[in-house]
Each structure stands twice: as C-alpha cells, then as structure tokens.
Amino acid sequence: MMSLNNSSLFLSFVIPVKDEAQTLAGLFQGIKDALKETDKHLRFEVIFIDDGSIDDSWLEMSRLAEQNPDTIKAIRLRRNFGKAFALSTGFNECQGDIVFTMDADLQDDPAEIPKFLDKIDEGFDVVSGWKSNRQDPLSKTLPSKAFNKITSILTGISLHDFNCGFKAYKKEVLHGIKIYGELHRYIPVLAHELGFVSTEVSVKHNKREFGVSKYGWERYARGLVDLLTVLATTRYLKKPGHLFGGLGVLMGFVGSVILGYLSILWFTTDTPIGTRPLFFVGILMVILSIQMVSLGVLAELITRHNDSGPTDSAIVDKRGIV
After folding, report:
1. Which residues contact residue 201 at a Cβ distance below 8 angstroms, ignoring those fewer than 6 apart?
2. Residue 101 parent element (H or E)
3. Given CA atoms 191, 193, 199, 202 in this order, what sign does their dihedral have?
4. 37 and 126 Cβ atoms separated by less than 8 Å
5. Contact 45, 75 (CB under 8 A)
6. What is the pTM of this model?
C-alpha cells in the first residue's frame, strides 16, 4: 500500500486552463498552502495546460513557471482541443506517484487536498470529489444531478458527481486508460473495469469570482453519447456479441409479437393487414434483429482473432517470475 509517510512520494497536479489568467497565481499558492498543512513534506509539481486560451493565461502561467522552475510546468496547445485532450497531455508529462486533476477557476478549493490524500493512504486507487453544496445556478445543478443519477445506475458505480474535475489517482490507474472526447469524467468507470477501487469525498465548492463558465447544455448531450461509448468498451469490449445479439434478440421478440398479433387478427376477423403501418414495423424489427445478431457474431469472430490476452494494466502483482 502506498504510504504518505514516505518522504520520497511525489504529487502531480494536472490543470487544464481556458481563459483563467486571474486565478492561476492564487491556485498555485492554494496548493502550496494545502500541502504545508499536511506536515508530510511532500514534493509536488503543477502542470498547467493552456487549452487555446485567448486571454493572458499563457503569459501568466509562463511567468509562474519562470519564477518556480522546479515546481511548475507550462504547456501550450495549438488550439482548443477540449478538456480530455488537455488532461491526457498533462498525464503524459507528469511524474507523480499520485496525480490530481483540478479546474483552474478556483471553484475547486485546494484546501481540500488533504482529504484526497487520506483516502489514498487508506488504500483507494481513485478518489473523486463530490460538490455536495454546489455553488452554481439551478440551470446547471439540476441537469447535472439527473446526469449523475443516470450514469450511476447504468455503470453500477456509486458516485454522486461524475462531472467534478477535482480527482486524485494513483499513477498506475492512468497507465492503462486512454481518454478522448468527454471521457475524462468517466475515468473512475474505466478504472473500475480494470479492477481499481474508487471512492469519493465531499469537497467545498466556491462561487466563481473570475471569468465565465465554458460549459453549456451541449456537454450533457456529448456526455451521454460518451456514456454509451464507455458502456460498450467496458462491459462489452470482450463480448460484443452480447451487446449486438442482445439488442437483436429484443428487436426480434418485439417484431415477432407484432406479427403474431396481426396474424391472429387476420385469421379471426378477416381484417386486411398488408396496408397497416404496424405490419411494416413488425417486418422491420425482424429484419433488424437478423442484422444485429449477424453483426454480433462477426464482432465476436473479430474479437477472438485479435484478442491478445491479459494486459499489464490488469496485473496487480507478480511473484516468482524472472
């Protein structure tokens, strides 16, 4: 088990930045102050990733990096690629044994960092923040609660706040995970599939004092699409036939019920069914059923052919192997 009493333990803070020049200095100072409160003399680095900012964010993070060359790294992306890409870029550069992700707007309170460290010290691999008293308008909090509830039910992971960017990971968690699109919020789900253990801590959420929110309603639509991607690549990655075949069997059952009902109607009442829309729906469902089952069989054949066996990310320990 990773112990925080180890003076050689190194922390990385990966922080995507989009037009947050006014908060960067305060965020860095907050991280330093929070780590001083732990009395563990932990070494750390802060990696700022400028994700296409159009304000003075790059100038500010460059200034901070020059003043703190042993602690701060500043990375500038060519344009706005999105939060997942920015985080992935930071993960590739970080050296820490424990990796934190935070938003740069100071709504995530750095003073909560010791809570995450305590959970890591207890043996958890992923610690997710939970903004239990979120300081945002109802137009953001209500859709977020609905989204989190749906995600929790479909994934089987009991987290209250998948959208919270304040998280901590053991470094091995991130080695076997690739994120893109909006998958950054689903890292606990992807980690769970690899056998890592997640938990959450309630964190303070501050009101935004500078800048404006970069996210709107469209992120929930993208998030739901990526949720389907996560479900397909975790639960059904090694058994795609169950996904496509299951959908095919369901469609075939519905189509058969419809056609059976129409057949009984035709035999018992002499009512013509060839022009009824329901007749064509039944035929369509049966055809789709055959196609989905066939697609599932092909997917299984491809998976079996390309299956390379267990990956290193699934192995937790080795003994007696030279």
Report:
1. 112, 115, 116, 119, 127, 128, 129, 130
2. strand 98-101
3. positive
4. no
5. no
6. 0.73
List strand residue ranges (DSSP E) for 121-213, in order: 126-130, 167-170, 198-202
Summarize pLDDT for 274-306 with one digit per residue, the tens: 888 898 999 999 999 999 888 888 877 776 666
Compute φ and ψ for 112, nearest 5 degrees: -85, -5
- What b/e sequence results for 82-109 when a residue is b if at least 16 CB atoms lie within 10 Å of its CB, and e otherwise? bbbbbbbbbbeebebbbbbbbbbbbbbb
* Angle between the N-to-C axes of helices 24-36 and 113-121, in degrees from 0 to 180, rounded to the nearest 10: 50
CB 302, CB 258: distance < 8 Å: no
Cα separation, 86 vs 75, in Å, equals 9
DSSP 252-305: HHHHHHHHHHHHHHHHHH----TT-HHHHHHHHHHHHHHHHHHHHHHHHHHHHH
